[in-house]
Amino acid sequence: MTLMSLDALAAGLPANGRLIGLDPGSKTVGVALSDLSRMVASPAEHLKRGKFADLAARLEALVKAEDVAGLIVGLPLNMDGSQGPSAQSARQFAENLAARLNMPVALWDERLSTAAVERGMIDADLSRRRRAELVDKLAAAYILQGALDYLARGNRETPR
Question: What is the SS3 assignment for 138?
């Protein structure tokens, strides 16, 4: 499959089925899962970024085990909406996953997601070590929740 818009992904989804949210970074990939009704995103795990084949195999196993209908990959756009090297890398990662997993994959603007998650963890008085352990999967959940909220609104508003 190829990348598609979130609206196109939503149009092809079954009534029930989880979505996976991914926050691809240079060293790790945060993973989050929605519930079957696609209302709530929960942090799942973070994966080390190494060989793409190993990462894709782990995601493929998760897709099969959790009844996943599609993937949402965070797209780190610049503040002006342009795509820099990180966004181009995330787009390529998403395209490779769509081809490897043969399932619908959409991109979601993740500007400031990690910063928002970091602020929340600082406000919760988590140690630096604990924040480092959690930030990737919490950012993935933040990204996925934004996409789920957009889908729940019936696609009436412009995606961010």
Answer: helix
Model pTM score: 0.88
Is the CB of residue 153 less than 8 Å from the CB of residue 140? no
Q: If phi over 0 gives left and psi between -120 and 50 gives alpha, with beta otherwise, what is residue 46?
A: beta
Report pLDDT for 62: 95
How far is it between the farthest Cα atoms of the chain? 43
The whole-angstrom separation of Cα 32 and Cα 85 is 24
What is the end-to-end Cα distance of the chain in Å, rounded? Answer: 24
DSSP string, 82-126: ---HHHHHHHHHHHHHHHHHTS-EEEEE-TTHHHHHHHHHHHTT-
Which residue ranges make up each domain of the chain? 3-151
pLDDT in tens, 64-85: 999 999 999 999 988 888 889 9
Write down the pLDDT at residue 155: 56
Architecture of the CATH domain 3-151: 2-Layer Sandwich (3.30)
Locate 46 and state its tokens.
């973070």
